[in-house]
Amino acid sequence: MIIPNVEGAISFLITNLEWRTI
Predict the structure, then answer these.
(1) Distance from chain centroid for Cα 18
(2) How much is the pTM?
(3) For 1-22, how does the pLDDT look when each residue is reduced to its tens digit (9 = 90+)?
(4) CA-CA distance, 10 to 7, in Å (whole number)?
(5) How far is CA 21 from CA 7, 16, 18, in A?
(6) Apex CA 4: angle with CA 1 and CA 20, to 5°?
(7) How wide is the angle at C-alpha 21 spanned by C-alphas 3 and 7, nearest 5°?
């Protein structure tokens, strides 16, 4: 992670949570 993007981090967390749900 060179440049921390809030939107990117949130999107990544949401995607990770969705995958864990499956």
Answers:
(1) 10
(2) 0.41
(3) 556 678 888 999 999 988 877 6
(4) 5
(5) 21, 9, 5
(6) 75
(7) 20
